[in-house]
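Handout for the seminar on molecular recognition.
Each group receives one record of this type.
Step one: identify the two inputs.
Step two: read the structure output and locate the region that could contact iron/sulfur cluster.
Step three: write two sentences on what you found, then compare them with the reference statements printed after the record.
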Amino acid sequence: MEVVADQGQKFWEKPLSELNNDEWEKLCDGCGRCCLKKVVDEESEAINYTRVVCKYFLEESSSCQCYKDRSELVPDCLNVKTMDLAATNWMPSTCAYRLRFDNQPLFDWHPLIAGSREQMDEQGISIKGRAVSEEYVHPEGLDEHIIQWVES
Ligand code: SF4
Ligand code: SF4
C-alpha cells in the first residue's frame, strides 16, 4: 500500500476567517500596492492607481512606518481586515487577502511560497523603485501619475 505523507494544510490555504492574528499579518506580501494613491474616474467610476505612494511607506523594508496608528494618521488608509471585500475593489488584484477572500491560491511569487521577496521584486509586483512619495506631488496633480501596472 502506498503511503502518502500528509504535509498538512498551510495556513495561507485556510479561509481568512480561520487565521489567527499572526497568520493574518504574515499573509501580507508587502507589495505596497495598496499604499499607492488612487484616483477614481468620475464617469466610469473606475479606480486608477498612481505611482504616488503614502509618505509613511518605507521602501527599503516594504513596510508602514506608522502601522499601529495608521488609521488616525492617514484617514484614507485602507484596512483590509475591516473592509467589505465583497462590496469593494479597492485592493489590487494581486493582493493576497483579496485572492484568499475569492478562494484563489496565492501566486508562486508570494514570499510564503517562493521563500523570499526576490521573485516579486523581479516581476514588478512590489512597488520598490517604481513609486514616488506623496511628499513630492501636489494632490491635484495625481492624474499625471496614473499607472497601468497595478489594477484593481
Ligand atoms: S496589496 Fe495586499 S498583500 Fe500587498 S501590501 Fe497591501 S495588503 Fe499586503
Ligand atoms: S499609513 Fe496606510 S497607506 Fe500609508 S504606508 Fe501605512 S499602511 Fe500604507
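Reference statements: Residues 14-145 form one domain. DSSP finds five helices and five strands in the chain.
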